[in-house]
Amino acid sequence: MFAFFFSTTALKCLLDVYPIQWNGIAVTKRYRLALYLLTFSGVVFRSEIAILVSSITFYLFATRRISITSVIVPAGLAGLLIGLLCSVSIDSFFWQSFPLWPEWIGFYYNTIQGHSAEWGVSPWHFYFSNALPRLLMNPITYLLCIPTALLNAASRRQSLDLIVPSMAFVGLYSLLPHKEWRFIVYVVPALTAVAAAGASWIWTRRAKSVIYSTLSLALVGSVLLSFTASTALLAISSLNYPGGEALDILHNKIGHPEGHHLYVYFDNLACQTGVTRFLERHDGPQTIIDVLEAQNTTSQRTWTYSKTEDPQALLDPTFWFNFDYVLAERPEKVIGSWDAIHTVYGYSGVRLLRPGEKSEKASESPNNSTVPATPSAKATIAQAWEVAESMLRNTVLRGWWVTLRMEPKIRILANGMNEAGEWIET
């Protein structure tokens, strides 16, 4: 998202050229700023932007908008040097390793050495057939609005300036086997801007004929439907972070002794589903908030966390003996005597319920769970949803319903081989 800000501002600079085409110096400055921002963000934040800046540079050069000496070299060198100065100096200090350029290391490891495929492989058309339609959400965007903007003479040139380099970037990035929507999210503002031009052209002609009137109504309806779908997907996506929920439960809803140092291990799935540094407890007051909350009993105990994936360590029984708690997807891989004190469920798909079928519970804890059943905003929303489901299903939908499938994702395990098992309140 840091890089997204710079890439969107750079695309804005490309459009700012049109009102000042009579001023050659001002036009050159806009193009230079656009390429500088893209280069800087690629060096500091996300290496894949190097492909985007390359596609935009080649397009502008091929259409004779820029020259090598006046735009490409100054913008490229400035973005590269200032970006390296910021990234290498700051990251080397915090990682205590000099010189360190994180984006180059990630690019070299994933792209040049080809390790990105280890994270999964998608077909070459994934971005075009799956990622972009999901990012744009509204199908009218790419089925109606974008073609309209490209066919309309008044908006064709500006639209091509955004569409061509953006699609070239997506096409080039499709050559890599590992694909994720976040790698191409930078083109969404460009596509949305072009779609907005097409939508505006249709809307301003809504009173001229029945066809334009119908298309305008379709635009309004599609926006409302997209908003509803986005809201529903937002609610569903909140169920994709069982790791973060498990860590919050471990910190705040499970009883711990005061004055003890607790050791916790996070497995791979927990780290991928919400466990972050922001949720970890400090080893002592480190911020103003920590000092203000110094009277809180939780601040009297310290925590140490481990996320190692060393296969030799994970097969060593003495390694596991050091931990008081483990957040694990598969408890059978954790060596030793462990008690599953709580299970966190996560989203696992959608299920169509027929008349007479009962919906599954969104989550439930094992019988030996030590987590108190305290009321929460999430529980209140769940109860309200159950009431709404009962009313709609029985009165309107005649027993049919669509529900979410929830499956056990993360287990909170307590070490039964040491004192940790005696600390948990029952």
Automatic annotation (TrEMBL):
Swiss-Prot/TrEMBL keywords:
Endoplasmic reticulum, Glycosyltransferase, Membrane, Transferase, Transmembrane, Transmembrane helix
Per the UniProt record, which residue ranges are transmembrane? 35-61, 68-90, 135-153, 160-177, 183-203, 215-236
Which superkingdom is the protein from?
A: Eukaryota
State one molecular function term (GO). Answer: dol-P-Man:Man(7)GlcNAc(2)-PP-Dol alpha-1,6-mannosyltransferase activity
Q: Which pathway is recorded for this entry? A: Protein modification; protein glycosylation
Among Pfam families, the record links this protein to: Glyco_transf_22
Q: Which InterPro entries match?
A: GPI_mannosylTrfase
A Gene Ontology BP annotation from the UniProt entry: protein N-linked glycosylation
Quote the catalytic activity from the record. an alpha-D-Man-(1->2)-alpha-D-Man-(1->2)-alpha-D-Man-(1->3)-[alpha-D-Man-(1->2)-alpha-D-Man-(1->3)-alpha-D-Man-(1->6)]-beta-D-Man-(1->4)-beta-D-GlcNAc-(1->4)-alpha-D-GlcNAc-diphospho-di-trans,poly-cis-dolichol + a di-trans,poly-cis-dolichyl beta-D-mannosyl phosphate = an alpha-D-Man-(1->2)-alpha-D-Man-(1->2)-alpha-D-Man-(1->3)-[alpha-D-Man-(1->2)-alpha-D-Man-(1->3)-[alpha-D-Man-(1->6)]-alpha-D-Man-(1->6)]-beta-D-Man-(1->4)-beta-D-GlcNAc-(1->4)-alpha-D-GlcNAc-diphospho-di-trans,poly-cis-dolichol + a di-trans,poly-cis-dolichyl phosphate + H(+)
Q: Does the keyword Transmembrane apply?
A: yes
The way it spans or sits in the membrane comes to:
Multi-pass membrane protein
Query: Per the record, which residues fall in region Disordered?
Result: 356-376
Q: What EC number(s) has UniProt assigned to this enzyme?
A: 2.4.1.-
Q: Where is the composition biased (Polar residues)?
A: 364-373
- Where does the protein end up? Endoplasmic reticulum membrane
Q: Which GO terms describe its cellular component?
A: endoplasmic reticulum membrane
Query: What is the role of this chain?
Result: Mannosyltransferase that operates in the biosynthetic pathway of dolichol-linked oligosaccharides, the glycan precursors employed in protein asparagine (N)-glycosylation. The assembly of dolichol-linked oligosaccharides begins on the cytosolic side of the endoplasmic reticulum membrane and finishes in its lumen. The sequential addition of sugars to dolichol pyrophosphate produces dolichol-linked oligosaccharides containing fourteen sugars, including two GlcNAcs, nine mannoses and three glucoses.
Question: Which family does this protein fall into?
Answer: Belongs to the glycosyltransferase 22 family.
Official protein name in the record: Mannosyltransferase
User: Organism, per UniProt?
Assistant: Lophiostoma macrostomum CBS 122681
